[in-house]
């Protein structure tokens, strides 16, 4: 199942995604807005989802094209975009497409792949197809910025098969959303964590509806990312360890890659 398909199994996926407090609190928004304003755009965003990063970039005055495979997430983004001022709406274009193979007919000064989008691509062929598609859409000398988590092998080896609650919120219509997460299996030779996000949604006092969003989460090591990017025409210029632009260390939570599209 592609990432888009995994999201669309969840009814109201966009609204439920936006209700998760941890997503709204992520520090990546300011980081990617700064990256976008440094170059002045236009920006291509892979996995734009509900517009969590797309809309702040457009509000900062930069044109941005958002691409996502999930119709549910894009529908939510369109609804939010409709509420924005005209100048912001004019800076945003949205495309439903597979990140592994897309053609938008234009090029960009910057491409971004936020919130671990690359980790939804399990096989090397899919990873290379995605990065090659990005390379076709970035001008020579343009940039690609992406993030994945820096794998903690202590966490990966811990038993996480039981559901662990990460969210309980009341939705605007009064229903309660409770979400749990579990990792029933790690496939070590493939560097994949089989992941389940489990949504319980219902009115207070009623039995909740239970929906499981299951997907594979591929983890990477530093040298592997450098190699994949080199094979698709990018030179890594910097790898950061967090969105405060601190350096990558063994204990850093993120690997944030800033790469340049080579001219030859």
TrEMBL record:
<dbReference type="InterPro" id="IPR029063">
    <property type="entry name" value="SAM-dependent_MTases_sf"/>
</dbReference>
<dbReference type="Pfam" id="PF13649">
    <property type="entry name" value="Methyltransf_25"/>
</dbReference>
<dbReference type="InterPro" id="IPR041698">
    <property type="entry name" value="Methyltransf_25"/>
</dbReference>
<dbReference type="GO" id="GO:0032259">
    <property type="term" value="P:methylation"/>
</dbReference>
<keyword id="KW-0808">Transferase</keyword>
<keyword id="KW-0949">S-adenosyl-L-methionine</keyword>
<dbReference type="GO" id="GO:0008168">
    <property type="term" value="F:methyltransferase activity"/>
</dbReference>
<feature type="domain" description="Methyltransferase">
    <location>
        <begin position="43"/>
        <end position="142"/>
    </location>
</feature>
<keyword id="KW-0489">Methyltransferase</keyword>
<protein>
    <submittedName>
        <fullName>Type 12 methyltransferase</fullName>
    </submittedName>
</protein>
